[in-house]
Design brief:
The protein is an alpha+beta fold. The chain folds into 2 domains: 90 residues, no CATH class; 127 residues, 3-Layer(aba) Sandwich (Aminopeptidase). It contains 6 helices and 13 strands. A hairpin with a 2-residue loop joins strand 8 and strand 9. The relative contact order is 0.21.
């Protein structure tokens, strides 16, 4: 049995080995999500990434490899690095006491388009519509309009990642994200799993995550590639 600390070092890899194995596409020893669900991949052996990336690029024009500290090797005739996002991983230490004043509701398939449209409004391109299948999503509505969401993404038998924390630009600075993260964290704890999240270094939301009880644990880099 793989220790949770080892899984946290390569969360995409172990998510595809466990909870999300139904979404797995394996190419030359590199693991990828089905591109209709998520455009993430993970590896252990950098020598296997050139062939694997060339093959995956036949299915989707842009995608990420996620790595704590290894640099993928690419076939530069077919693949180019668009950007590297220097990120970090945060793990729940102890959830702070947060008063939930909003009506937070589970989102279902009938909300699929609203979730997709809200995420693309704030964070365009990377979220895929079938990403809704990766875990539970929760939302806040105002005047029957979905204005804030929080979802679950990568997950194994031991942890669940909080992701897709998005608030409509007209409704920011009202504490909706804070309440949604706290609520989603509690839902993960009910499953006796460790809540984690990822963000880019320097994100202004990091102090909020820390106040909620999350701590920085390691780097987690996101290499965005596109086919030539």
């Amino acid at each position: 049995m793989t220790p949770i600390e080892e899984k946290l070092k390569n969360p995409v890899w172990y998510s595809l080995r466990e909870t999300h194995k139904k979404f797995l596409i394996e190419l030359n020893g590199v693991q990828f999500y089905h591109p209709e669900v998520c455009i993430f991949g993970a590896f252990y052996d950098v020598n296997k990434t050139p062939i694997a990336l060339n093959e995956y690029a036949k299915r989707v024009d842009k995608f990420f490899l996620v790595s704590e500290n290894q640099t993928p090797i690419i076939d530069s005739d077919k693949i180019v690095l668009e950007k590297k996002i220097e990120g970090c991983q945060m793990v729940l230490e102890k959830l702070a006491d947060v008063k939930i004043t909003e009506n937070i509701v589970p989102l279902t398939e009938k909300h699929l388009d609203e979730v997709y449209n809200l995420i693309w409004l704030v964070m365009p391109y990377f979220y895929r519509k079938r990403g809704f299948e990766m875990g539970d999503f929760f939302g806040i509505f105002k005047n029957k309009k979905l204005i804030a969401i929080c979802g679950q993404r990568m997950q194994t038998n031991d942890f669940i990642e909080i992701s897709s924390v998005v608030t409509h630009p007209e409704y920011t600075r009202k504490g909706y994200a804070k309440q949604l993260i706290a609520y989603t964290t509690k839902e993960i704890l009910k499953e006796h799993k460790l809540p984690i999240l990822h963000t880019n270094k320097g994100n202004t939301a990091i102090p909020l995550y820390e106040k909620l009880g999350y701590k920085l644990t390691r780097d987690m880099n996101w290499w965005l590639y596109r086919r030539v």
